[in-house]
Design goal:
Keywords: Autocatalytic cleavage, Cytoplasm, Decarboxylase, Lyase, Pantothenate biosynthesis, Pyruvate, Schiff base, Zymogen. The protein is mainly β. Helix content is about 5%, strand content about 45%. It has a single domain, classed as Barwin-like endoglucanases. It has a 9-stranded mixed beta sheet.
């Protein structure tokens, strides 16, 4: 049996670009992707902290160091510029396998503040 479990997360990123005319996806700074163990074209779930919406799309690699979190196509209608989002990727794990998720907490400019491999409840508020 396999379990779907958290593989990587970018926590409290700020949406700083939107392009409704693009075909779809989320554009993410490659440094943030690397820190969170995410890859281009990987499926991700996005949670908007401001409005509570949850949706799925795939990653497109942005420009290194630009700190872009850009929603494209239909995904651009799910959030507003300036909204805080949580971007999560998942993987299949064997029943007895223990995941080691890569968690990246960013500041209000999408610069990495901390990276870790576990979460403690109520530490992000």
């Amino acid at each position: 049996m396999f379990k779907i479990m958290l593989k990587g997360k970018i926590h409290r990123a700020i949406v700083n670009e939107k392009n409704i005319n693009y075909e779809g996806s989320i554009t993410i700074d490659p440094e943030l992707m690397e820190l969170a163990g995410m890859e281009e074209f990987e499926k991700v779930q996005i949670v908007d902290i401001n409005n509570g919406k949850r949706f799925e799309t795939y990653i497109i690699k942005g420009e290194y160091g630009k700190r872009e979190i850009g929603l494209n196509g239909a995904a651009a209608r799910m959030c507003e510029l300036g909204d805080q989002v949580i971007i999560m990727s998942y993987a299949l794990y064997e029943k007895n396998e223990v995941p080691n998720p890569k968690i990246v907490v960013v500041d209000n400019n999408n610069n990495p503040k901390t990276t870790k491999n576990s979460e403690t409840p109520n530490t992000f508020c």
